[in-house]
Give the backbone structure.
Amino acid sequence: MSERDVLESLRENARYSTADIARMTDLEEGEVEAVIEELEAAGVVRGYQVVVDWDKLEDERVRAEVELNVRLDRETGYGDIAERLVQFPQVTALRLVSGDYDFDMEVEGDSIREVSQFISEKVAPVPEITQTVTHYVMTSYKENGIELGDGEEDDRLSYSP
């Protein structure tokens, strides 16, 4: 019985029924139910979410990727800073990363002003944060492994001189 196979099926489409997953993984439906229950109880599966193509809606939704640099001291570690930042509902993802900055934070709001104010008034003043660099998401082509857009071919005319 492969937990990974069940997880991959759920990641592909969390709305698959246990019967669907059983057919795809060659497990019994009861086995699939048990695996899912165990994964949820162990905290491996933390929730089920929909992937939204915000460009298809009329309501504006602004998303930004924010690079954060921090300065640690003897009393404060990365986990302490992360614990404070994840409490904000505007923060949709926070990751400690390697490279030129320390944290990669995803933020959402109803307007550029809202996102900018959140970063300048709530994030930047955190004493350990030494720098923020904000990148506004202009268009998403893929989210959580799902391709976005209308799926149609490029309708631009080709040009040959």
